[in-house]
Write a structure and sequence with these properties.
The chain is α/β, with parallel strands linked by helices and about 350 residues long. The chain has 2 domains: about 120 residues, NAD(P)-binding Rossmann-like Domain (Rossmann fold), CATH 3.40.50.720; about 170 residues, Dihydrodipicolinate Reductase, domain 2, CATH 3.30.360. The protein is built from 10 helices and 15 strands. A hairpin with a 2-residue loop joins strand 11 and strand 12. Helix 3 packs parallel to helix 4 and helix 4 runs antiparallel to helix 10. The radius of gyration is 20 Å and the shape is globular.
Length: about 350
């Protein structure tokens, strides 16, 4: 591949997130969108602005023998693993929206296959690119905070009948996986990225008002210890009335305390650290508006840029397959940690 060559992308799954991928690919001067894939009919998807071939399945797509380098998987969670494996079998790089899979075993299968066919797997965790996340990562790696004592992660969002519609995959156990997989895996990823793995997990779950909407819990209290020292907790709910409340992380450390908040942990709400002056951070991209709901911070363009940089040998993967696996592993262990 020449440095001037464009990276050719296809996107499978043309819902809100898939359209976001298609938009970011189309905007990037070094990439080219060559196909869209979805089981729905094209006229029902509102994707006419993309003048590219459309297919109703991966089988149909691959039978056409397309010239493509990367396939972005933005389908319901329960399809991610099998579709990633199929794309890797065809020797294509894959970009997988969170979660990478719904269990550790399937995530390991993806990694094993990628190693065998010498292709990259990119796990989409775009909240790592937000200025507060980057700032805290640098602060921790510099040792400015000293020992980490306590980390509290609060995720309080609204998900009601406007989101869990009868004809949607959301809320279905086999396709959705659970509240932590679909709503809050981005924030578990940030916690893992900053502080490492967890153990000694104790979990308590409840279903306050989603009994007729989902196959799983809507709220939980989780406590744990970090393998590298310190303890933490995760408190979450999708039973918040009418609109999202917050996603926040409070860090209590040897040399001070920090809290980042907002709906997507996109705002620094408190910083008081010994011999340290808070710098002015770049503005955080606004969240994506998905109808009645906001999406995560709008950082998918960084994901596409990273894919291009990796394939053109200009840099490392920002969120590799092993990190995607760890998020799945942590969530799986949280669900198994019920008292």
């Amino acid at each position: 591949m020449l440095p001037s060559d464009k990276i050719k992308f296809a996107v499978i799954g043309c819902g809100h997130i898939g359209k976001r991928h298609a938009e970011m690919i189309s905007r990037n001067a070094e990439s080219e969108l060559v196909a869209l894939i979805d089981i729905k009919e094209k006229e029902d998807l509102h994707i006419n602005e993309y003048n590219v071939p459309f297919f109703n399945s991966l089988d149909e797509f691959f039978k056409a023998k397309p010239e493509v380098d990367v396939i972005n998987i933005a389908t319901p969670n329960g399809y991610h693993a099998e579709q990633a494996l199929r794309c890797l079998e065809e020797r294509k790089h894959v970009v997988i929206e969170k979660p990478m899979a719904l269990n550790k075993h399937d995530a390991e299968r993806i990694i094993f296959k990628a190693l065998n066919v010498h292709r990259h797997v990119f796990a989409v965790m775009q909240n790592r690119y937000s200025p507060p996340s980057i700032w805290i990562k640098e602060l921790i790696e510099a040792g400015t905070l000293g020992k980490i004592f306590l980390v509290q992660l609060n995720c309080y969002w609204n998900r009601d009948s406007r989101y869990y519609k009868p004809d949607s995959w959301h809320g279905k156990e086999k396709l959705d996986g659970g509240t932590l997989f679909t709503q809050f895996s981005h924030f578990i990823d940030i916690m893992y990225w900053l502080f490492g793995d967890i153990h000694n997990i104790q979990s308590k779950f409840s279903d306050f008002n989603h009994q007729d909407l989902t196959d799983f819990e809507d709220s939980g209290f989780i406590s744990f210890d970090f393998v590298d020292g310190g303890m933490g907790c995760l408190n979450y709910s999708t039973s918040i009335w009418n609109q999202n409340l917050e996603s926040s992380m409070t860090i209590i450390s040897e040399n001070g305390s920090i809290k980042i908040g907002g709906q997507y942990m996109n705002e620094v709400e408190y910083c008081h650290v010994k011999d340290y002056e808070m710098p002015k951070l770049a503005a955080t991209n606004p969240g994506n508006d998905y109808g009645a709901y906001k999406g995560s911070a709008a950082n998918h363009h960084y994901v596409i840029e990273n894919v291009i940089d990796v394939i053109k040998s200009r840099g490392p993967i920002s969120t590799n397959a092993m990190e995607g696996l760890k998020v799945v592993d942590i969530i799986e262990r949280i669900y198994k940690g019920k008292k």
